[in-house]
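User: Predict the structure for this protein chain, please.
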Amino acid sequence: MKISKTLYLSLALTIFAKPTVALSDEEPRGILATGECLKKVTQDRGAVTVSSTLVLQTPREASEKVIKAHEKLKAEIRALKLPDMEVDTANYSVNQECSYNSKSERTCTGYRATLGTRFETSDIPSLGEIISVASQNGAQDVSDLATFVSPAKLKAEREGCLETATQNARAKALRLAAGAGVTLGKLLSLSERGDGGPSYPMQGRAFSALSSIPEASAGVPSIDAKPTDLTVSVTSMYAIQ
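Assistant: Here is the predicted structure, written as structure tokens:
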């Protein structure tokens, strides 16, 4: 089949006559500056986990007895009526209690049942009262003591810090412009960087085997919480006039 020269020319025009867009390699001119707000935030929440454990001959007996003992302990702690208290089960287990001698011979003495509850409150100093009540009511373990900033307060503090961070970014941009001998123009872009917030919980301490030291655990330990460092960062881009 023969194709005329006119048809070849038409196809060539169709293929090569499409419009093209030229991409510029030139980056936008501007001054990039980051701003920060550094703040000390007072911790407003605290938590501690209290556990009861018993070893008895059968798993059912161990489970029933430890639940009964732990419910009594929880009632004593709830009677403190601490503000904004939240209570949730931290752990529960029933395992055979066994040991091995030097000849690797196994000896089992019964079943260990363990039940733990986490208590959280907005009254951080009163965590010491929980520890004291736990030790006086047969708790075998007090652990995961933590003080921290609540999510609601952390969010409010972060948002309150954004204006300071933005002002800091502009101040840095002005210094950069002055050092470069140019004039700072209008703001082109502004964005928040990361979360900048502290991890949760903020700090933890543990007390174990309280029932073995009744004299030391009879008092109320002092619980202190240091302020948390909060950093909020923003990134800004300003035009150059």
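The chain has a mean pLDDT of 84.
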